[in-house]
Q: What sequence folds into this?
């Protein structure tokens, strides 16, 4: 178990069967991705036309390849996949990525092709990701098999298992360009002919390069195995799941997408919970929560304090925590409360949540917010802090180092920032804070939604043994 | 009723009592705002120091003012407000905005001052917004009393009634800089000593410059009157309410913010529903839903179609509609389905929601999305359409005119756009589409959340008479 998966995630040599010299073709995009990610291993190309690609020779057949290549990425029409697998296996290749669609997700002819693939996998003993996968990513090894133009993928400790092509493609572009966090392994499962979510989860659970696992699944191939693996994995690191097809309408869409069988969602839900899997229902939470974990610890619990420049936001976010998110907004310890009172005008009686603007009008934003953050972060009643910064031309925009410094003093409690005010300054605040390890969120509700998800992860990791 | 409110919203002349020549002072910021908004009426300043501000003379006392000014904005310490109101009333001024805090929201001395204000209002018959208000905005009249640096506020048909200073201040800056829609009237109610939400709602219900009303309230001063006014208003235009203090924790925060009394939320909820008020629970929805109404019609119903480049998004959004939002994703009429099938490869059987990427790979993004949008917009089974555009460097970014053109052909059905892919192109898409009347949303869930709110508005307007 896991041995051949290393040849997927840490290959020393890779061959692209169906390599192309034409920009915009999948067989070329995959090469551009591998080069953009500075892959250090040996790279081989196969195309019957021969010639050169990116200054490297192209082998005209698989049989011309040397023995002992670790991994093959096969980018050929569906009908040619069975023979290609047989040939790469004959060359001693143990790990194969099959990009082509056109198998059981399409029609009866595809089903027949898929059955032949099953047979050749069994016969040869190769391990396969796909078919119908957009590929996988392994930043610790500077490698990807994705044929979607990605560019350099930033390295981090978040890993994804996805029964959709999105995560090695356009969602990864979104993460790279907007969410500013790095990933470790990304696995597009495709049709799950061989490698499935259970084995992928088992691999990532023991992977030292993965600190948290996010999954999008529409079906579970071996439910018993999956729950067994998850029960162990969720004690080691957070495991978050978005299960597509939670409703009859969604399930119908899932049949069209991945031919997923509908399951009784309530039974699945209970089983997931027992296995410590934290279930989510918003696609966007797959990257919002990941961003928080990429640079901040898990919240030790559900007790949140927040600082806002607006009484209405204090009220609305208290409602949100209490009504929708299962978060507590507890009373502060007296020492913290007194500290907040010290920096505030007399007319306001300080409490949690923290109305920080009166203090800011007296002491300035930097001092008031900075001291306020430290007061609540030091509070033993508080597990996590959300800071709502008001940034407008009119009220002035201070340097935001104080946020980074206050957060750094309390490395065991997460701090998230959100904004109100001018787009320009919110963007600048995000661009300053995120590279310094403080996640930011555009809308005021979002950091609370993330805390709610991650507090459940903590509880799952600490759940009693049955 | 309503007569003196015109002097708030359509003043021909305004005096600022407490005008200041010092940038950054409230008594100066209000002047900058009025000038930035191109107020056409006469402007007077009062300050005991006299002199000039912005090239205009400053009167040293209220008694020096001419008779018959429409409105006074009083920016003085709380203790000076009673006398100032008495003096402006003596000059025939009928509409007064009181900016100062420091009344009943603070302490017992403030309560006493507030009682004196009540008495002087009764005695003089002036109408008052505030005290403790950040002011109001009336773009059809190029006017604002806000003392928060706003700049020019774009004109539109959305109006806000807010029991918080946010909407004439930093939330307005957010709307102006990020959400790209215009407003008509914005009323910061402050302590609601005189003008309250019931009268404001009655005014906006008959206001031809207001097409939709959004409210943030923490308390309701005259519940019976409010529900009576709302019952009529909600038949004419959408009325959306975020009620702060929906939970016991939120209610405690509301006591600290506006001294709002807690109400039994379930009883309030039933009464709001009967009055046709559409209740929301997210602060951010106050501007997300407003943006949709600023340029698109109300959805005629709950039946949505959406086009996405990703099977997983089709699945997840179907789940979201069905599980959380009460939206239907119905079968398409056969003519629409056939049209979608015509533009798609044979291997995919087209349905609602619409997997548009296969068609895009054959015909290009513009043709596939454009024709796909027209097919579902023409469908009698469909009330609204959400378009998920995938925009990345690798897949190419076409001109987005096709979205505007398809939407324009079906002016009675709303079209919202959301994105997946590169931040740069998503931002450019937003900047292109929103000025052309197509609202965009950053996260894929958001347009569906908005549709759910606005479909309830349609149902409220069409609800049976009791």
A:
């Amino acid at each position: 178990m896991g041995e051949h998966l290393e040849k997927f995630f840490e290959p020393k040599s890779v061959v692209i069967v169906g390599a192309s010299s034409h920009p915009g073709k999948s067989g070329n995009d995959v090469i551009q991705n591998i080069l953009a990610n500075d892959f250090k291993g040996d790279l081989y190309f196969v195309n019957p036309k021969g010639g050169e690609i990116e200054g490297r020779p192209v082998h005209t057949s698989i049989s011309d390849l040397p023995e002992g290549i670790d991994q093959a990425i096969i980018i050929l029409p569906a009908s040619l996949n069975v023979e290609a697998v047989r040939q790469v296996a004959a060359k001693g290749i143990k790990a194969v990525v099959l990009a082509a669609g056109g198998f059981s997700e399409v029609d009866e002819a595809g089903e027949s092709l898929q059955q032949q693939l099953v047979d050749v996998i069994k016969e040869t003993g190769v391990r396969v990701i796909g078919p119908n996968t957009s590929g996988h990513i392994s930043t610790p090894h500077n490698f990807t098999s994705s044929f979607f133009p990605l560019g350099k993928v930033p390295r981090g400790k978040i890993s994804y298992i996805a029964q959709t092509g999105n995560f090695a493609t356009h969602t990864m572009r979104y993460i790279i360009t907007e969410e500013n966090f790095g990933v470790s392994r990304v696995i597009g499962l495709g049709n799950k002919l061989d490698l499935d979510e259970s084995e992928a989860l088992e691999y990532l659970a023991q992977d030292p390069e993965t600190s948290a696992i996010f999954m999008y699944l529409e079906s579970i191939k071996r439910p018993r195995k999956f729950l067994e693996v998850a029960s162990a994995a969720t004690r080691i690191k957070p495991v978050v799941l978005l299960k597509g097809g939670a409703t009859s309408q969604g399930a119908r869409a899932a049949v069209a997408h991945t031919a997923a069988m509908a399951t009784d969602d309530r039974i699945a839900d209970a089983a997931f919970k027992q296995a410590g899997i934290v279930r989510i229902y918003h696609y966007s939470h797959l990257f919002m929560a990941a961003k928080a974990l990429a640079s901040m610890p898990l919240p030790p619990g559900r007790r949140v304090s927040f600082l806002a420049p607006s009484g209405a936001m204090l009220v609305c976010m208290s409602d949100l925590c209490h009504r929708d998110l299962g978060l507590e907004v507890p009373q502060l310890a007296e020492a913290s409360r007194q500290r907040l009172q010290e920096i505030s005008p007399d007319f306001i009686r300080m409490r949690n949540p923290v109305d920080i603007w009166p203090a800011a009008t007296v002491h300035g934003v930097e001092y008031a917010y900075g001291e306020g953050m430290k007061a609540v972060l030091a509070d033993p009643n508080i597990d996590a802090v959300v800071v709502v910064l008001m940034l407008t031309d009119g009220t002035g925009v201070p340097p935001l180092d104080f946020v980074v410094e206050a957060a750094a003093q309390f490395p065991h409690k997460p701090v998230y920032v959100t904004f109100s005010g001018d787009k320009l300054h919110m963007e600048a605040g995000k661009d300053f804070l995120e590279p310094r390890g403080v996640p930011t969120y555009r809308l005021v509700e979002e950091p609370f939604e993330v805390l709610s998800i991650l507090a459940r992860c903590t509880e799952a990791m600490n759940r009693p043994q049955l």
Q: What stands out?
A: The first helix of chain B runs from residue 3 to 9. Residues 154 and 386 of chain B are 26 Å apart (CA to CA). Chain B touches chain A through 76 residues (CB under 8 Å).
